[in-house]
Design a protein that fits this description.
The chain has a domain of 56 residues. Helix content is 35%, strand content 25%. It binds zinc ion (ZN). Zinc ion binds next to loops. The site of zinc ion has 8 residues, from loops.
Length: 83
């Protein structure tokens, strides 16, 4: 799970270095309010834990389903005698 913040200054999303499994975990590590530096514009802003958006990386699922689709198509072509 990746943690993202929306910069108050430039409205760009940037990732938090901090890893947390839950909101409670993040509060324990950073506190309810914390200052983060935006990677895009470099401005320090204070954020609330609720500002953090957790994004699950769909890359693995995407890769697996992509391979499955490829295999499925290959089998289909094989079955029909195109290969
Ligand atoms: Zn920014």
């Amino acid at each position: 799970m990746k943690l993202e913040l929306l910069c108050h200054s430039c409205k760009e999303k940037f990732k938090l270095k901090q890893k947390a499994s839950s909101r409670q975990d993040l509060i324990l590590k950073l506190g309810e309010y914390f200052v983060q530096r935006c990677k895009h514009c470099g401005s320090n802003s204070e954020y609330h834990v609720n500002d953090v958006k957790a994004t699950t990386s769909g890359s693995l699922i995407g890769a697996v389903s992509g391979v499955l689709v490829m295999v499925g198509i290959s089998v289909l072509f094989w079955e029909n005698g195109y290969i």
